[in-house]
Amino acid sequence: MAFNIKDYIRDVQDFPKEGVGFKDITPLLNNHDAMMSTVKELITLLGDKKVDRVVGMESRGFFFGTLLAAELGVGFVPVRKPGKLPFDKISQEYALEYGTDMLEMHADAIKPGELVLIHDDVLATGGTAEAVCKLVERLGGKIVQLNFLMELSFLHGREKLKGYDVQSIVSY
Question: InterPro entries attached here (predicted)?
């Protein structure tokens, strides 16, 4: 890559709560050249894999997910929190540090046999990504890769995603 993506990821301490170090990608989104170089790098991670759909998770996975879909010439599928999608949907619960949450996808978003790239900005504990994999597979999609801008490797999210091709541009 012609630039260092870490130069465009800002650390914000104590957000969204005290003790958390948040990785803010808005400087990356604010710089056209860096943003488009990042899209190219994410596509490079795919290699020669064919993709029919890009699935992005709410909400920061939408930014590069839609750009990836446009660049690859395929459709984009949003995965949202409950109550945000207006049509028939399927749901998947996943574990949080304390309790559970849920994600939803339109029931007609992926057809059986379609090749799917799942994208999000960060791989942390892997719970959200694992839930999205379950949604895609329930609809009959075949996951070709999960890719991320960054991975917080100290949280061991890859362990929940064994058996999948998991790629990230940078690791912390």
Answer: Ade_phspho_trans, PRTase-like, PRTase_dom, UPRTase/APRTase
Q: What is the pLDDT of residues 121-167, one digit of tens each?
A: 999 999 999 999 999 999 999 999 999 999 999 999 999 999 999 99
Span 24-58, pLDDT tens digits: 999 999 999 999 999 999 999 999 999 999 999 99
Query: Active-site residues: which are they?
Result: 60, 97
Non-local CB neighbours of 158 within 8 Å, separated by 6+ positions: 123, 126, 151, 166
Comparing C-alpha atoms, which of 115, 122, 124 is closest to residue 145? 115
Delineate the domains of the chain, giving CATH numbers in brackets: 48-171 (3.40.50.2020)
pTM: 0.95
